[in-house]
């Protein structure tokens, strides 16, 4: 997949930890429109880009439009002591959302605990029947 402006916006959203629905509201997009554009690999209008850059002024416009340079403007990088360089697509795909992973594992554990309880009940019932 070719990285384009809409994918770089998503990369920024992920970097900042912003929920897509909040991002959409803040930049004047209708609910679900950004996700739809991303899913369908669509472009984004100039009016929306202007709104994004007004709301999130730390975004480096060159990076946003071309992918060249740093995600954040140099003055923002210096202020916050951040160093963010463009990552390759393969690297971003390897990133793990640990919160989602922990929640999924918690659900698995709870499900397995129910299975164990059921099986223990069955074993106890079978033991009673054999006596």
UniProtKB/TrEMBL annotation:
Identification of the protein by name: Bacteriophage CI repressor helix-turn-helix domain-containing protein
Q: Which organism is it from?
A: Flavobacterium nitrogenifigens
Q: What highest taxon heads this organism's lineage?
A: Bacteria
List, in alphabetical order, the Gene Ontology terms for molecular function in this entry.
Answer: DNA binding
């Amino acid at each position: 997949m070719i990285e384009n402006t809409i994918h770089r916006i998503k990369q920024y959203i992920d970097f900042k930890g912003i929920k897509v629905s909040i991002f959409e509201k803040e930049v004047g997009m209708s609910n679900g429109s950004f996700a739809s554009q991303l899913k369908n690999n669509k472009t984004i209008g100039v009016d929306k880009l202007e709104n994004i850059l007004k709301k999130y002024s730390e975004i480096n416009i060159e990076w946003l439009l071309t992918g060249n340079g740093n995600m954040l403007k140099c003055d923002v990088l210096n202020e916050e002591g951040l160093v963010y360089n463009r990552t390759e697509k393969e690297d971003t795909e390897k990133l793990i959302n640990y919160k989602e992973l922990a929640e999924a594992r918690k659900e698995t554990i709870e499900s397995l605990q129910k299975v164990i309880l059921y099986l223990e009940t069955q074993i106890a019932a079978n033991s009673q029947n054999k006596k």
